[in-house]
Design goal:
By secondary structure, the chain is of the alpha+beta class. 29% of the residues lie in helices and 24% in strands. It starts with a strand and ends in a 21-residue tail after the last strand. Residues 1-5, 7-19, 137-142 and 452-463 have low confidence and may be disordered.
Length: 464
Amino acid sequence: MEGKPITPAQNSSNPSASPESDQEVLQIWGRQPLKGHVKISGAKNSALVVMAGALLCPDDCRLRNVPGLADVARMGQILSAVGVKLEQNAGVLDINASHLIDAQAPYELVSQLRASFFIIGPLLARLGFAKVPLPGGCAIGARPVELHVRGLQALGAEVHIDHGTVHAYVKGPNRRLKGAKIYLDYPSVGATETLMMAATLAEGETVIENAAQEPEVIDLANFCRAMGAKIQGAGTNTIVISGVPRLHAVDYSIIPDRIEAGTFLIAGAITNSELSLSPVIPDHLTAVIAKLQTIGAKIIAESPDILRIVPGQTHCATDIETLPYPGFPTDMQAQFMALLTLSEGDSIIKETVFENRLRHVAELNRMGADIRVKGNVAVVRGVSRLSGAPVIATDLRASAALVLAGLAADGVTTISSLQHLDRGYEQLEVKLQKLGANLRRVKEGTDAANVHVPVNPGRSSLNC
């Protein structure tokens, strides 16, 4: 394998994805028109679970289109801690899990990354035992692991939680899981992926009912199939896995990030700018595209993997309810809320996936938005302008929403707690600067320079 060992700094092509990012702020001078083309990175949520899935294989795995993100670096550290060898060269990551030395992931790493819990399924399948601390990540809700635990128990594992660590092991001489029928009370992406990975090496057939249908689940299934796994039905609510005794080496490319693509589509809409982006898989963006069209934007497919957004001269209010795929994604709720703050009329946003994912409302209101919240419902009354202000990113997608609001706001917006942003967007500032945005990352406490910037005249006012 070529390249160099993976470390947090080396893994990220985003120079800001570092432990110091929480001591930096992003300053944005708003109301600048954007123009150009955006290259969409590999999907964060696919890369993380596919990295975990590589634990299933005792041979070399090569992953392409791996985004340079803090979360990817952290997952690399977790894999290294259990004996995996990783080497990276730009967006190519080589993984060798032939000699696992430990089935216990370190608490200090797992507590920072929700996706790290995925390793419990592959470790249990490969070794017959695993110890994984309860996961961390963004503070957007409980995200319990009961569905994972019950599914692993159905596959024959003994599982108990002790002092914040999940202990799982398989009895019997061959320490091998056994196929089972599993019904998920909720179509959890994490539980579907964990159980699908565990079942690839189990004896017999496993059926997962009410499975998650997200594109990232399909990507993981395709990755496992490329290694020799027998999986059918990924992308539907019933997945059937016929266990095999061993998987083999693979060279696999991660799908484009549908959430990054959606974020840049909204960047075009909120700044009244025409942008194109690729590579994308338009079918993964159906719900987001439909809502953008509803409010008045045009989305043009220039080729099978290139989309262009042409904003309307005005944007109208609309209602959104987040749902599991193929519904409107919870990971796009905050960004779309930023756009609706400047749309004509009243919009209603209902968050049904996570119970604590409206914390960005207070920050958007600080910028002049008019949003009221009751429970898991936000009522957004469109305003004519937003104003730059100091705001705090409360989670990954909230940070993107504040960047979008800052791009459209008068004056300077200063965003702190950038460690959230660096978890999920590769080189976001660089990509925006190439489009014409005026923004910079500086140490916290740095005064915004008195930079003269031309004002975007904005949209003409039309009735919706």
